[in-house]
Specification:
about 220 residues; mainly alpha; rod-shaped
Amino acid sequence: PDAMDPPETASNGQSKTHPRRERVSNRLALWLMALATLGSSWSGYQASLWDGRQSFALADASALGREANEKEIIAYQQRTLDASLFVEYTRNLTEGKTRLNDFFLARMRPDFRQAIQAWTATNPLEDPAAPATPFVMPQYRVQAEIDSKELSIRSQALYDQARKANLTSDVYTLLTVLYTAGLFLAGLVGGFEQRRSRRTLLLLSLAVVLLATFRLVWLPVASLG
């Protein structure tokens, strides 16, 4: 039949698709199915990669968190020991037991030894303006406490990366669902003879696939390794 021939009419009164238009709509549906299949496969692949990134980031964050807790415990123990040694050092200082204080100084942590020597040099027994304790001196530091804070910051950063990876994976999974829906709608086109039904399915499939593709191009891409 000629392309200008009027469309055939079905028994229910709805117009059938002209054979030429049917071939065009089938071809469009085929392209949509191909695009939806590729998009769904790519989205599923990316979702699995981002899940892996999330798992590794969480594992590293947990390891750093445990190490930070260990450093925090060590810092607390060192501060407690420093306080005990300070009490003994101050008692000996007031009693003039310099030899005993030399014994304590030789066994103090280097950072605490520098702080208490700097504090002693301020003549705290005679000068009321001297610092009250060596713990406020700039020389006093607990390296384990500093390490604990740094490890905690790194651990939190990895937790944030894991949350972002989880969100990205969820979006890719959602796109997989959308592409699958678009694929399903495009696959239904060939099962209908009515022009309106075929056109509706094509438009719905096109809208879903375009929506998913538009969101897909703005997502970060993960790579192996």
